[in-house]
Here is the input.
Amino acid sequence: MCKPLLNLTPAALLLLMVTSSVQAASNAQMIITASVVAAACDVSLSTSNLDLGNYTPSDFSGVANPISASKKQFIVGISNCQTPLAANDIAQLTITGQTLAGNPTLFNSNNTNTGVMLSQVSTPTDYLKNGDVLSVATAGGTPSTEDFNGKTLSLQAGLAATTTSGINFGAVNAPILFSFTYN
Here is the structure.
């Protein structure tokens, strides 16, 4: 009786080794971020995609000078705001996005010599840079939720280049984040 059991032992061990083997593929990592702030607001855009159109190299008229026909306006606003903590507190938006090397006002995540320039409609030649902070609203003497809720900024985007010759063909892709900043 022991003999047949001994004959099965190597086969059973082999079967156990094959079935208990674990195949590990690749691992995945996620970076999770959050901010703890004194007060919060939701940020919204009048559009999440802004198509500036199609242009040829001859449409570009200068370095870091947006093509007039490419300029499009959009609105960024804040809502669902908590009551500001104190009088004169400021609701702000921080602008972040990848820019072209040596050109902090030309946003583009593709490696070309063209990009998008942003400005406030009220100051059309004061171009915004990655990391700029824009004031949206200031709390009154007796702070209330209405001090910040529903406040907006009118911005415009336009297509520009880093050079006047040798303009690269291809798509311009400029993901830009507008994040709420308090004071």
Q: What stands out?
A: Residues 42-182 form a domain with the Immunoglobulin-like fold (CATH 2.60.40.1090).
